[in-house]
Amino acid sequence: GAVVSQHPSWVICKSGTSVKIECRSLDFQATTMFWYRQFPKQSLMLMATSNEGSKATYEQGVEKDKFLINHASLTLSTLTVTSAHPEDSSFYICRGEGQDFSPLHFGNGTRLTVT
Amino acid sequence: ELKVEQNPLFLSMQEGKNYTIYCNYSTTSDRLYWYRQDPGKSLESLFVLLSNGAVKQEGRLMASLDTKARLSTLHITAAVHDLSATYFCAVSGTSGTYKYIFGTGTRLKVLA
Q1: Which pLDDT band, with edges at 50, 70 and 90, does A18 fall under?
Q2: Is-cis flag, bond preceding A8, omega within 30?
Q3: For residue B73, which of A59, A80, B24, B45 sits 20 to 30 Å off, Cα-Cα?
Q4: Measured between CB atoms, does A44 come within 8 Å of chain B?
Q5: Average pLDDT, stretch A80-108?
Q6: Other C-beta atoms within 10 Å of A31: how many?
């Protein structure tokens, strides 16, 4: 089946630094990429939606200048957490959507810990 | 604004027992999904329900959808320890791309 490869699986960074998370669609073209954040023992909260070649649409309460999303190609989208703080520590998951609108295209997630 | 609620939030049950998880959503939707999540892992797709009255079964799990009541159920039959996980329903809107809004999640623990 179609696969979304998400990297890194986990990352530890110091407060104030930036971290980039990549999601690649390996055998389909992701025209849309959804980015979710999940705090421990909570549900997945949609952060933003990006379409290839367009600016991302952010959900209410999500700082677009802090969470930079790039979706420059149909196979790659990135989320950069800028000036990370401990409260940004979370599990970040992407979902790619292609022409088949399959529910399967979730990345494996990135565990971010900011110290 | 689309809201999705699940109950119960936590469920501890004995092996061999049956139970149902409920998923309610607030506005019209044409697709409902059920996912399983193990600790520290991403989501595993279980079911996609596309129409009113849809019922799908896989092993000990059966999902159904009532779009008029805006309700989906995930029924567990004769639970086994391996079913211990967190279960999420997700609903997508009806305009454009399928933006999934996830339910609150149900943490299931099956006691051996």
Answers
A1: very high
A2: yes
A3: A59
A4: yes
A5: 91
A6: 17
Residues of chain B with pLDDT under 70: 93-97
Check residue A103 and give its pLDDT: 77
- Is A103–B40 a contact, with Cβ atoms under 8 angstroms apart? no
Closest by Cα among A47, A99, A88 to A69: A47
Name the amino acid, one letter, at A8.
P
pLDDT, one tens digit per residue, over A34-51 is 999 999 999 999 999 998
Query: What single-letter amino acid sits at A48?
Result: A
In Å, how far is A19's CA from the nearest CA of chain B?
20
Asked if B4 and B91 touch (Cβ cutoff 8 Å), the reply is yes
Average pLDDT over residues A61-88: 95
A27 and A3 in contact (C-beta within 8 Å)?
Answer: yes
| Chain A residue with the nearest C-alpha to that of B92 | A103
| Integer Cα distance of B36 and A28 in angstroms | 23
Closest approach of B73 to chain A, Cα-based (Å): 18
- Give me the pLDDT at residue A60, please: 92
Measured CA to CA, the distance from residue A93 to residue B107 in angstroms comes to: 19
Q: Which pLDDT value is given to residue B13? A: 93
Would the CB atoms of B97 and A43 count as touching at under 8 Å?
no
DSSP symbols for A44-107: EEEEEEEETTS--EEPTT--TTTEEEEEEETTEEEEEE-S--GGG-EEEEEEEE-TT--TT-B-
